[in-house]
Design brief:
Elements (H helix, E strand, L loop, with lengths): L12 H29 L11 H28 L3 H22 L11
Helix pairs in contact: 1-2, 1-3, 2-3
């Protein structure tokens, strides 16, 4: 029997748990960003019909991108560094940037009456 050694050791439990937690954090961030803007985007502009793309396009896109982005940053951080603090920071920074981008683009602030 010939055994070969892998370049990368087997994934530890902490690495697997970190990836799952980053995916859960990203899914929650995507869902939260969608939930902030959905009530504003739901009423349609044409004859008061609902805007169905909020459900069939925006919701899956926000959740899937929210899951993929932190997982990607976790994977890159796992391959480039051994520090758990740097891995966590990479996930938090990417999730924060995702939230800032989605809340700025997808859910802009409402205009208040009487403002210039």
């Amino acid at each position: 029997m010939i055994t070969t050694e892998r370049k990368h050791p087997a994934v530890s439990g902490a690495g697997t748990a970190g990836g799952c937690l980053s995916a859960a954090l990203g899914a929650a961030a995507g869902l939260g960003a969608w939930a902030v803007a959905a009530p504003r985007r739901w009423p349609g502009e044409f004859e008061t019909s609902p805007e169905w793309s909020v459900l069939y396009l925006d919701f899956p896109a926000m959740v899937l991108i929210g899951v993929a982005l932190p997982l990607l940053s976790w994977t890159v951080a796992c391959r480039t560094t051994t520090s758990p603090v740097l891995r966590t920071a990479a996930v938090l920074v990417s999730t924060g940037l995702f939230l800032a981008a989605t809340l700025g683009w997808y859910a802009p602030a409402r205009d208040t009456p009487g403002s210039l």
